[in-house]
Amino acid sequence: MKSNSQISALLFNVLVLLPAAASDPIVLNLWNGDIPGPPSMTQGEERDLTKPEDKLIAGHRIIKLGHVSQPQVHAYLPAPEKANGGGVVICPGGGFSILAWDLEGTEVANWLNDLGYAAIVLKYRVPTSAHGVPGNWQGPVMDAQRALSITRNHAEQWNLKADNIGILGFSAGGQTAALAAVKRGQRLYEPTDQTDAVPCSADFAILIYPAWIAEDDGRLKADYVVDETTPPMLFVHTADDRVSCLSSVALFTALKKAGVSSELHIYAAGGHGYGLRETDLPVTRWTSQAEAWLKQR
């Protein structure tokens, strides 16, 4: 006869590791015990910081999730008849101050699910911006690396191929995703448990208006070391983005020189922070290029 603790463990596996329905995310805390790296500098409980007067995106509000002290993954699995075995860790943007949780997170998960990909939305620690460089991105990149390992560790349960796990990020989340990709499995933290025995590399990366990858003069920052083993990447940016498109250009150029097949789309106009929400500007239909690129892979 099973003890109460054994029964509770079985219920945990049923409720957490398997989704109740296709639309329900699997929610897992990233870390057991102490969280490595620079902490989030929270003030109170995790909450939506959106104000009534904040700018609308394509006519709708966004969720600005702030004060995240417990990093998590929210895994959305596609319908079984659509599943293609691929998985993508999604890093929302927000300047390392907040997370654009729906605009650059859950809405992206819905799109990827429609394509057959498992979509793992990363709730990384914020705010960290006050740490300064590189402390602002170190914690989020550790969270991204851990999320990649967790996703691979659940490959069998989530019907994934362990060699088809990518990462996608927007703005500060694009920087986070880019750094996780160029590290090629070299962790920024000491392994903490058996999950970290699983690789934290990305097999591909999609970077949408990624931030702070290039110096002001357009040179690639020293943190981004690229060679022939760096995964292929897709970039989307606009020339009028206040977060310079030179970040995308610089990393794409380095990939080209290293012989890594990648793709770069620079649109004339569109600004910053549009996510997947379609407007009359061509850049907001970037998902069609991304879908074609994913199919070519």
Protein described:
By secondary structure, this protein is an alpha/beta fold. The strands form two sheets. An eight-stranded mixed beta sheet has the order 1-4-7-5-8-9-10-11, sandwiched between helices. The chain has a three-stranded antiparallel beta sheet with strand order 2-3-6. β10, α5 and β11 form a beta-alpha-beta unit. The N terminus is likely disordered.
Summary keywords:
globular, 297 residues, 11 strands, 8-stranded mixed sheet, disordered N terminus, alpha/beta, 3-stranded antiparallel sheet
Strand runs, count = 11
Distance between the termini: 50 Å
Number of helices: 6
Strand content: 15-25%
Structural class label: alpha/beta
Largest sheet: 8 strands, mixed
In short:
The chain has helices at residues 4-17, 102-115, 135-153, 172-182, 246-258, 287-296, and strands spanning 26-29, 47-48, 64-66, 72-76, 87-91, 99-100, 118-123, 165-170, 205-208, 233-238, 263-267. It is of the alpha/beta class.
Question: How are the SSEs placed, and which strands pair?
Answer:
Layout: H1 4-17, E1 26-29, E2 47-48, E3 64-66, E4 72-76, E5 87-91, E6 99-100, H2 102-115, E7 118-123, H3 135-153, E8 165-170, H4 172-182, E9 205-208, E10 233-238, H5 246-258, E11 263-267, H6 287-296
Parallel strand pairs: 5-7, 5-8, 8-9, 9-10, 10-11
Antiparallel strand pairs: 1-4, 2-3, 3-6, 4-7
